[in-house]
Every structure is written in C-alpha cells, then in structure tokens.
Hints:
Blueprint: E1 8-11, H1 17-27, E2 31-36, H2 58-61, E3 68-71, H3 77-88, E4 92-95, H4 101-105, H5 109-115, E5 120-125, H6 140-146, H7 167-190, E6 195-199, H8 200-206, H9 209-218, E7 235-239, E8 244-248, H10 252-261, H11 276-281, H12 283-294, H13 299-308, E9 313-315, H14 319-324, H15 326-330, E10 334-339, E11 343-348, H16 372-378, H17 383-391
Parallel strand pairs: 1-2, 1-4, 2-3, 4-5, 5-6
Antiparallel strand pairs: 7-8, 8-9, 10-11
Amino acid sequence: MQPLEEIRVVDLSRALAGPYCSMILGDLGAEVIKIEPLTGDETRGWGPPFLPNTQDSAYYAALNRNKKSMTLDLKQESAKRILSKLIQQSDILVQNFRVGTMEKLGFGYDVVHQQNPKLVYCSISGFGSTGPYSQRGGYDIIVQGMGGLMSITGEPQGQPMRVGVPIVDLITGMFAVQAILAALVVRSRTGQGQLVETSLLESQIACLANVGSNYLISGILPKRLGNMHPNITPYQPYATLDGYVTVAVGNDKLWQNFANIIGKAELLTDPRFSTNALRNQNREELNQILNPIFLKKTSEEWTNLLLANEIPAGPILTLDKVFADPQVQARNMVVEIEHPKAGLMRMANMPIQFSETPGQIKLPPPVLGEHTETILLNLGYTMSEIAELHHTKAI
C-alpha cells in the first residue's frame, strides 16, 4: 500500500509548479487526473529534446509521470459538467490559473466547496490572490528576480544570475504538497476540506533563509558572492589540476584540521583567520593563499585527502557522472519505465524512502488525452455519449 492510495487528485495545473506538486502526490500513490486543454499542457512543446516518436518534450516528461491525461474544452458546458462530476468524486484539486479564472469558469473555491465539502482545493499563483500584483502572471525567472534570489546569485562583478533550474517553481510545488497533506490531516479530524494557497513570490521569500535573515537583522544588503558563502569561509569550490572540488569548512575544529591537511599550519596563528567571522571578513586574502594550493592536485586527490580527514568535500560533476555515480545508483535514483510510444525511458526517481508504504513510479508521462475515454466510462458516460463529446470537440 502507498501513502496516498485511494486519494484522487484533479489536476488543473500546467507548466511547472502545479504539475510538480501533483506529480509528487502521484508518486506517493494518489490517482492524478491531469485535465488539459485540447492543445495540451504548453510544456509538451518546450523542447528539444523530445521523447522518441512523440511531440512531448523531455521537460514535460520530468513533471508528469504517475498521471492520467484527460482533455476538456472548458469553454463548453458539456465539458464543465464532466469536470464537475469528477470534482465531486475527488479528494484534492490543484489549479494554477491566473487569479479569477476558476471563478469565471464556475469552479471557484466557494462553489466547489458547496459541491464537495471534503475537497482540499489548492491554488498556486505567481503573486497570491490578493495585493497589487495578484493579477500578474507568474514565471520562475520573473520571481527569481523580484523575490531577491537573482540579486544574491552570480559573480560579484557580473550580472544577476538565475539558478540553473526553475527553483522557484519547484519549491512552490513542494510547499503546495506540504499544505495539501496538512489539510488532509485536518480533514481526517474534521471531515472538512479547505482552501490552501501558495505563490511563487511567497515561496521564494520564505526560502531566502539565512541571507534574508542576515538582511532583516543587520539592515545590510547582501552582495553577490559567486560560489562563496555569506556566513562561512572557506565554503566554496576551488580549481584543481583537472576540474573543481568543493570544500565546506563549517566550524573552527574543521578549520584546524583543514589548515594542517593542506600544509598551512601557520594559518592557525594568523590573526586574520583565527575565527570564522574573521575568515569571512578576510576571505579574499585567504583565497589568495588557498587558490594556488588547490591547483597542485586533481579533484579526486583532494576529495580523497579531505574526506579521509573528515573535511566535507566533493568534486563538481557533469550530469553524465552524476547519474553514473555509485552513490546515486546505490540509492536507485535513476529508474526506467515503459512509455507507450517512446519505449523504455529513464528518469530521476522520487527522493523519499518509506520503510512500510513506499511510493512508486507506476505510470509514464501520459500521451495527450490518453485516458479521456476510460475516465468518462468510469464516470458513467456511454460510448455514444463519448462519441458525441468528441464530435462537438468538448473532449
């Protein structure tokens, strides 16, 4: 048995934050019915690369496993009736339309709650349902900028830099999952569902973490530090003979070991570097000493030497080496699943382990509308009624 077995999700989201949320729910065992327009989720076209023998992108595949695809034209009343039936038989609804769209379609929270009081209704937006920006569309790069992340990412003299993955979308999807699961716990006590809401902007600000706290407490604006840490030194990558190695000297005991290991015991009596706070203040001078030292060995040699002396360290790997790494393989983080058109495909596994009720990747990313007829039959529609829905292009 899986954690969310017998839970049904109506997924009205598209692009990234919402689909990532619903995919996690699917990985945990929920039945996720992905409602798409007849043209499909726009991420299907966000390529190349594309899955073999399909027009579906690898981007789409990364966000939509463990789901069933149903196409509906929600401008048509017959399609709205289908959605209404489905909602009445479901536990969770996830939507990330622009604020106000669900109300215009007739599926705002107040209406849906009357139809199904047990439903947990999750709304994801760019900026939240209230406030002066509520009507704006939200995209990851926009919020990485507006939420402060890009102002602290990048080289000190370079441009503000976005994180290499759509990190704001991803963390928003994860916050949405947390909210949904908490609401399910409440429902188990009260029998009632509720509205839960999160946004890209709020999620990003919540994840400013130590850097946001540094500013709120000190009033000092943080600067871009490249790969250096605002509160710990040394804590960064260093160039080696053949690449880079990352080093994390997180406390003064580690600093003592580190200085001895690299053959620079004299650093321990240097007043510029005697505490972490001083090392932060004098990081440029320290790195002038460290940079040429790290160029004397390979990344593997440094990693082995540092780890042997309990200094956290590791190489910077390209993705081919990441997915071939023995630890990644030991944790089964790459799985294979059969796709109806693309054949055997590989994807990253879910990163959660359960001792008793494990999650599972059971379904490949669905072909557009792949499950529409099956879902309609389960809702009680006849084949002649389904044929008429096809004819009117409601599905």
